[in-house]
Amino acid sequence: MAPSPSLHAAQQVTDLIGRTPLVRLNTLSRPGVDIYAKLEGQNPGGSVKDRAARRMIEGALERGDLPPGKRIIEATSGNTGIALAMIARQKGLQLELVMPENATAERVGTMRAYGATVTLTPTAGGMEGAIDYAREQVEKGEAWMLNQFGNPDNPQAHYETTGPELWADTAGQITHFVSSMGTTGTIMGTSRYLKEQNSDVRIVGVQPTEGSSIPGIRRWPKEYLPTIFEPQRVDRIVDISEDEARRMTRQLARDEAVFGGMSSGGAVAAAVKVAAELERGLLVCIICDRGDRYLSSDLFTRDIG
């Protein structure tokens, strides 16, 4: 029986991806300078990566890129893997996800709950080690890789969805877009769209200071820099320390009831630094995911000093 046309319900979970809410951060804003947070944890898979994962999988299927019967393999720090696991199962696809073994139990467990195979690589090798393992499996002909770090569907997802949503929800008043940089898909696609609307919108990327470890934000070695990254699309890069990101993540949860991960705290910390230089502005940060994905870690408990 076909659903009634008057039924207000999605027909599949992937229909719920995007159109996430925007909220003012009242304790961090001041008259004339507003900081807003886009709550990407409201996506059904719990993060901003739902957008790119859907676009990459659907794009590969539409183009016929995925060899029939071949399993997909992808290196991930967590959120992309969760999103891919959620969507791949709905498409009847086999998926193996590769990540460093220090990934939080919540992330690994969620991927497996969605039906994906999870392979953990040594912590010492970091994400680079996970990427190398996935590439080796592809070279052996045992799997096919979406390659989020070089797949144009990654930034395209944000050009088609995140950028237009921000422009519409701020009524075109956005002056700064602040985003953590991991695969760089979010900042690349959103930058392209916003700059087409108003070339004066400033695009601010966030990366860790030397020696800092912030899940979801990378300071890439040159040989591993995502090929989708176009430096000219970023007007400014702000370095944020691990302690700064931790403090802001906790502050957001306590004072704003915005519960995100450390990369979200890093983005907001960078936005606060930029806002301090302005007399007027409307800044938007990406809250990449939800804080409950990190409760088994020391994000909310470790003494920062």
TrEMBL record:
CDD domains, alphabetized: CBS_like (cd01561)
EC number: 2.5.1.47
EC class: transferase
GO molecular function: cysteine synthase activity
Keywords: Amino-acid biosynthesis, Cysteine biosynthesis, Pyridoxal phosphate, Transferase
Cofactor: pyridoxal 5'-phosphate
Residues annotated as binding pyridoxal 5'-phosphate: 79, 182-186, 263
Catalytic activity, reaction form: O-acetyl-L-serine + hydrogen sulfide = L-cysteine + acetate
Pfam families: PALP (PF00291)
Biological process per Gene Ontology, one example term: cysteine biosynthetic process from serine
UniProt cross-references to PROSITE patterns, sorted A to Z: CYS_SYNTHASE
Record domain Tryptophan synthase beta chain-like PALP: where: 13-289
Keyword DNA-binding applies: no
Modified residues (N6-(pyridoxal phosphate)lysine): 49
Family affiliation: Belongs to the cysteine synthase/cystathionine beta-synthase family.
Protein's name according to its UniProt entry: Cysteine synthase
Naturally occurring in which organism (per UniProt): Deinococcus cavernae
Lineage per the UniProt record: Bacteria, Thermotogati, Deinococcota, Deinococci, Deinococcales
Gene of this entry: cysM
